[in-house]
Amino acid sequence: MSNLLQSQLYKFRGRALVECGLKREGEYPYCDMYSFTDPAIGQTHDYYLCIDNCP
């Protein structure tokens, strides 16, 4: 992989199951959180994905 491409890829930091609030009655209030670091600027980005039937 080229150095340019390598520097543009986010680095995976971790994954966790987190509480993100009640969606609708009867649905789980949890999300999967995926955390990445942008190596070009050193900033962390967290992405939250519903683990149930989200709207």
SSE topology sketch:
Elements: H1 3-8, E1 11-19, E2 30-38, E3 43-50
Antiparallel strand pairs: 1-2, 2-3
The neighbouring-strand order within the major sheet is 1-2-3
Largest β sheet strand count, sense and barrel closure: 3 strands, antiparallel
Helix content: 10-25%
Q: What's the alpha carbon Rg, rounded to whole Å? A: 15 Å
Q: Treating each run of at least 4 consecutive H or I residues as one helix, how many helices?
A: 1
Structural class: mainly beta
Low-confidence stretches: none
Strand tally: 3
Q: Helix and strand succession? A: HEEE
Shape: elongated
Characteristics of this structure?
mainly beta; 1 helix; three-stranded antiparallel beta sheet; elongated; 55 residues
Q: Can you describe this structure?
A:
The protein is mainly beta. Helices cover 11% and strands 47% of the residues. It has a three-stranded antiparallel sheet with strand order 1-2-3, with no helix packed on it. A hairpin with a 4-residue loop joins β2 (30-38) and β3 (43-50).
